[in-house]
Amino acid sequence: MSDLLITGASPLGGATTDLLVRDGVIAALGPDAATDARADVERLAADGLVLLPGLVDLHTHLREPGREDAETVRTGSAAAAAGGFTAVLAMANTSPVTDTAEAAERVLDLGVAAGHCDVQPIGSVTKSLEGAELAELGLMHRSRARVHVFSDDGRCVHDARVMRRALEYVRAFDGVISQHSQDPALAGPSACCHEGELSGRLGLTGWPAVAESSIIARDAELALHTGSRVHVAHVSTAEGVEAVRWAKRRGARVTAEVTPHHLVLTTDLLSGYDPVYKVNPPLRPAEDVEALRAALADGTIDAVATDHAPHARHDKEHAFPDAAFGMLGLETAFSVVHDVMVTSGRIDLATLAERMSHAPARIAGLADHGRAIEVGAPANLVLVDTSARVTVDPSASQSLSRNTPFAGHTLTGSVRTTILRGRVTATDGEVIN
Ligand SMILES: NC(=O)N[C@@H](CC(=O)O)C(=O)O
Ligand SMILES: [Zn+2]
Ligand SMILES: [Zn+2]
Question: Which of 209, 310, 340, 411 has CB atoms 3.0–4.6 Å from 239's, for a disulfide?
Answer without folding.
Answer: 209
